[in-house]
Amino acid sequence: MKDFRKSCVYQIYPKSFRDTTGNGVGDLNGVTEKLDYLKKLGVDYLWLTPFFVSPQNDNGYDIADYYHIDPLFGTMEDLDRLIKEAADRGMGLMFDMVFNHTSTQHEWFARALKGEKEYQDYYIFRKGKKGVPPTNWQSKFGGSAWEYVEELGQYYLHLFDRTQADLNWENPNVREEIRKVLLYWKKKGIRGFRFDVINLISKPAYFEDDDEGDGRRFYTDGPRVHEYLKEMVKETGLYEDDIITVGEMSSTTIHHCIQYTNPQEQQLKMCFNFHHLKVDYKNGDKWSLMPYDFMGLKKIFHTWQTGMAEGSGWNAVFWCNHDQPRAVSRFGDEARYRKQSAKMLATAIHGMRGTPYIYQGEELGMTNAGFTSADQYRDVESLHYFDILKESGMEEARIYEVLRQRSRDNSRTPMQWSDQEYAGFTNGVPWIEVNRNYKEINAEECLEDSDSIFYYYQKLVGLRKEYDVISEGGCEPVLEDHEAVFAYKRTYGGDTLLVLTNFTDRSQSIAAADLKLPDEELTKYRTLIANDGAERESKKIRLSPYGAIML
Ligand code: TEU
């Protein structure tokens, strides 16, 4: 049985992982083909983003049938084989369950549109106010969160795309349907579940305009969310020891995350929050660029690390996923110090208290897409914002710059397996362009180089299994006011772990005294892992550009 505190989860975006049919879209057999690679990395769970039947308006986060696999990705036999082959290698699958909304192509929604009251109550339909939507809430992808249905004379709520209709969790039948889906997949042997935007499922009893914002304060960590989660978990037996669950929490608070994950509550094992990934949003706006605020980033990490520990909550810790730009391009240096900074960023996360997640390609140091023209983008959000920013009067060149830094497609370019055509991802034409740097950055190259980012990650994953101080220890900020180095200390039993990471391209020197240690104490620490940028002297540690060390 796996202990989620010692585990590492690897996220796969199947569409961009490995295509075995030549249609340009990755598939389940592609994942099976690469299991030995994943095993070598040492990860415990494979989180696969949704591959259920879907019109793919939001790459599968618009589910039309929770029980069937979209033929685009393969068949049930392919899945069965994947489950078995992964289990044979000691890895469990984690499914991505999207229960805040369904595709408008789901049968429930179709029946609602046909006038069946029972199914209308599966969604959130409301009358407008004299030709105006029921509230002024905004969709997360831009524009109103309400869509008018002529035939019914009503609007339905969609917090995301208008083809993603929000489900009505107040309706016990909806909750029952959701439990059925979970039990079905659990019985098939799925060992983990990720719940998409699960803290948005509970909407307020009354819908009113938001004079201060886009409406999120009314439904984020909403009134009945904890009750719903407890019920769902209890009725499906999801709190069992060997099942891992993670909730994706949008704009949440530590207070709520403790409640979601404290074992006494029996809700989820851990949750994602995104506060550390908004430190480069000017005034909190994703589409306004600014250099990232390093001191702000440190503060968020320290606050969440210590706050969750104090409340016995548990974090999922990560830099990258399919919605975020590549970390090395964002917080590191994607050119001269790419390898060094990728390893530094990995060290910062993998020493933390929590369960680390690696997103496909992160272990190779893959970078942002570098797209230069609108027709290279595929993401529904990027395409919406292209228009929205244009209408707002932004110059086209600036829009391209914003998308180059912020588009979700930055992380969705095909996995770079080799220096062959299309990076060895497909024999056909990929659904989204391959990053041009695939000849230098690819898995084959990484596997041949013992000093590669891949092997550095492999070592980090192993250290968590070996040392209880990494998996169990408490945490304390170190060098809080330092303007270049992010550092922390973990303690467990008689052991202390120190993690020091230099986020700049300037060398830094940290003396024992800076760490509040007597000189002779520092010499007692053993180096567990370091990139090429860290050097130890008797009384100090030198960190060259993007240097990192774990002691
Ligand atoms: O994302 C939820 C979410 O709030 C984001 O991270 C979102 O991508 C961001 O707000 C856009 O600026 C989840 C999925 O991870 C994402 O891929 C889906 O598009 C979304 O839910 C809807 O299901």
From TrEMBL:
List its EC numbers. Answer: 3.2.1.93
Keywords of the record, alphabetical order, are: Glycosidase, Hydrolase
Q: Does the keyword Hydrolase apply?
A: yes
Tell me yes or no: is Hydrolase among this UniProt entry's keywords: yes
Molecular functions per Gene Ontology: alpha,alpha-phosphotrehalase activity
Domain annotation Glycosyl hydrolase family 13 catalytic: ranges? 11-412
* Alphabetized SUPFAM superfamilies for the sequence: (Trans)glycosidases (SSF51445), Glycosyl hydrolase domain (SSF51011)
User: Which Pfam families does the record associate with it?
Assistant: Alpha-amylase, SusG_C
Question: Family per UniProt?
Answer: Belongs to the glycosyl hydrolase 13 family.
Q: Would you tell me the protein name for this molecule?
A: Alpha,alpha-phosphotrehalase
- Organism, as annotated: Hungatella hominis
Q: Provide the organism lineage as a comma list.
A: Bacteria, Bacillati, Bacillota, Clostridia, Lachnospirales
